[in-house]
Specification:
The chain is mainly beta. The protein is built from no helices and 32 strands.
Length: 334
């Protein structure tokens, strides 16, 4: 049965994780109590969270399978839209920052754990098929990961204030020490490493790891700094504070900063895609999402999901989304 003056015209965002809030846009949306308010995703009924005449919000069901899923609303039976549901790669993790992806498409995810507690595994390596293997041991509170320009994995320990260098067998050795509460990591193209000490400092570490100096200062973070280098050679930093709104910073080579966006609720991991476009996680409760920071207009939510903390891209353009306990892959984001 069709409903005159009713239409389902769009959904936001284009990609989701199970448990995410998906918005449906349209006209003549029925009230939440109406029998016609039913929405399905991949054929599975979705719980209605909110309804207004021009929009509705539903929760993506856990049973929605990965891949491109049809979204249908009983109040607009002639319309079918599609949303991409992330494919789980690994669960049972404990991440506080973005994973990283090597040239072979393998995902590396830190298992951080409670403060000061040494766990059996510090970093897991996850193959493209989802097979997971312990990769690094012995790093207390492994926090952030990055690859050097030559492809060597580096891991920070927020408990020890140390950055470790990991060889191709998974063995770790200290690379730089006395870095405070070391969290976010990013390499410049010349091999210089930048380390975020969440107490208020961005450290500049020489390519040899022997020289450490202060690059910039920021308000202390209640969780962690997150770092990424842009294709133009600038350093991008986020770090949630006690403020109600937080900023995305960009630093030039001399440490001069500018605020690119000051309206994040709880900014987390960030990464650039193959086209040089920045993506930032905002983990504000209830609206956790990955945003595309387009230079042509306002930021756009591209992935929604509960508990998001990080984002990464592989060389084929696939997006890897990280929650606090799992990593998911999307083949492509519209």
């Amino acid at each position: 049965m069709a409903f005159p003056g009713v239409a389902l015209s769009g959904i936001e965002p284009p990609a989701v994780l199970p448990g995410a809030r998906l918005w449906l846009r349209g006209t003549g949306v029925p009230s939440a109590e109406a029998p016609s308010a039913t929405v399905t995703i991949g054929g599975v009924p979705a719980r209605l969270l909110f309804a207004a005449p021009d929009r509705a919000a539903v929760e993506v069901p856990e049973a929605a399978g990965p891949g491109r899923a049809p979204v249908r609303a009983a109040w607009s039976p002639g319309a079918t839209l599609f949303v991409d549901v992330g494919a789980p790669l690994a669960t049972g993790l404990h991440l506080v920052d973005s994973p990283v992806v090597d040239a072979a498409g393998r995902v590396y995810a830190a298992f951080s754990g409670p403060r000061g507690q040494e766990l059996p595994v510090s970093v897991y390596r996850v193959g493209p098929d989802g097979g997971r293997e312990p990769w690094v041991e012995g790093i207390v509170n492994a926090t952030s990961l990055t690859f050097s320009p030559s492809g060597v994995l580096h891991v920070s320990s927020r408990f020890e204030g140390t950055v470790y260098r990991v060889d191709d067998t998974g063995q770790a050795e200290p690379f730089a020490t006395e870095l405070g509460v070391a969290c976010g990591l990013a390499f410049a193209p010349d091999g210089t490493l930048f380390v975020g000490d969440r107490t208020g400092t961005i450290h500049h570490v020489s390519a040899s790891g022997t020289s450490v100096k202060t690059f910039a200062s920021l308000p202390p973070s209640v969780a962690a700094y997150h770092l990424a280098f842009g294709p133009e050679g600038h350093l991008y930093v986020t770090g949630p504070t006690m403020a109600t709104r937080d900023a995305l910073y960009r630093f030039d080579a001399n440490g001069r900063s500018e605020v690119l966006d000051h309206d994040f609720g709880r900014p987390q991991g960030l990464a650039f895609d193959a086209h040089g476009v920045l993506h930032v996680v905002d983990a504000l409760a209830g609206v956790s999402a990955i945003y595309r920071m387009s230079a042509a207009g306002p930021r756009q939510a591209v992935v929604a999901g509960p508990g998001l903390v990080g984002v990464a891209f592989d060389r084929d353009g696939a997006l890897v989304a990280a929650t606090s306990d799992a990593v998911y892959r999307f083949a492509a984001i519209p």
